[in-house]
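Dear colleagues,

As part of the handover before I leave the project, I'm documenting each prediction I ran so the next person doesn't have to rerun anything. This entry is a single chain, and its sequence is reproduced below.
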Amino acid sequence: MNPILNTWQLWALLSASFAALTAIFAKIGVENVNSDFATFIRTIVIFLVLGAIPFATSQWQPFGSVSRRTYLLALSGLATGGSWICYFRALKLGNASSVAPVDKLSVVLVAVFGVVFLSEKLSLPNRLGVGLIRRRRHACRVPGMTGQLCGGQA
């Protein structure tokens, strides 16, 4: 396998690219449908595609071979569902260029939660990156407060 395919940096950049496309496609797709139903459609597509990958790559595991701790992924799934429901509702109500930067506050929260709950250490470049994201996010204002929203809306 190509060594570049085994780097987290490549996969993180691909993730960011797909996340950007997600916002654009979701904003267009949610235009004439209830945001919760749009989330349901998205979930079905993800379920089918991701369910096919372990079969196609011979990586399917019997559920009995999975440790109990791995079942904490169910909590991750609930959090993902909550995030998607809120994200699609926000896209239904606002511009993608306004919603996406606020949604990316999750990057700062992941860093904080990683330090607090997982005892992770942030390197200097990680701290600088989180600080820049936080600073940019801090420039945005919540509706009803003074200042401008992200995306230039008053």
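Residues 8-103 form one domain. Confidence is low (pLDDT under 50) at residues 145-149.

All the best with the project,
I.
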